[in-house]
Amino acid sequence: MTEKKKKAVILGAGGHGKVVCDTLERRSDIAIVGFLDNSPGRWGQMHYGYPVLGGSEKLSELYKDGVVCAVAAVGHNEERKKLAANIYEAGMEALTLIHPTAYIARDVNIGAGTVIMPQAVVQAGASIGEHVIINTGAVVEHDCIIGSFSHIASGAHFGGAVVVGEGTLVGTGATVRLFAKIGSGCVIGAGAVVVKDVPDTWTVVGNPARRIEK
């Protein structure tokens, strides 16, 4: 007997949504019904081959129509956190997605709603929170801890046992040394080299990374 596919919707009809869609299409157990987006100008349009059905307020209606799971597909951490809450309020499952070309060690813990993109590496003993983005080609070494709703951008590299708080953005190509601790709500600029701990809410850039005022 053929297993019935679960219907899913993607929240966010932007560039990141397309990449998430491409990963989701590789799941043989999922049928994508379309996108939701809170920009009314996108409603009724096609995005990456699927209709934009409306805004996130349609989640409950879709759930009644048999759409049982969703993924928050926006790069902005605070917006993704709000969309995750919308998913749970509608009674849906938050999908966890791992691209088939990513390498994930066998003992890694991965929270609900997290998306791990192509060619990313997550090594032994690492723990990834909920609704995290580990973007294309990022390397998270052994025993790292990544807080929920954080975004590790493409090509970022972490040494072992790095700790990242909740809702932090680590920019494209950034490097973080072994054992460094980065707080919650931080922004690590693209290409930054983090050689010491970063307190909560700091923005740091450069090599070595230094604080700047937002």
Automatic annotation (TrEMBL):
Residues annotated as binding substrate: 75
Binding of acetyl-CoA, residues: 151
Catalytic residues of the enzyme: 142 (proton acceptor)
Secretion signal span: none
CDD domains hit by this protein: LbH_AT_putative
Coiled coil: none
Residues the UniProt record annotates as site (Increases basicity of active site His): 143
Annotated PglD N-terminal domain residues: 8-86
NCBIfam families: NeuD_NnaD (TIGR03570)
Protein name (database record): PglD N-terminal domain-containing protein
Organism: Candidatus Ryanbacteria bacterium RIFCSPHIGHO2_01_45_13
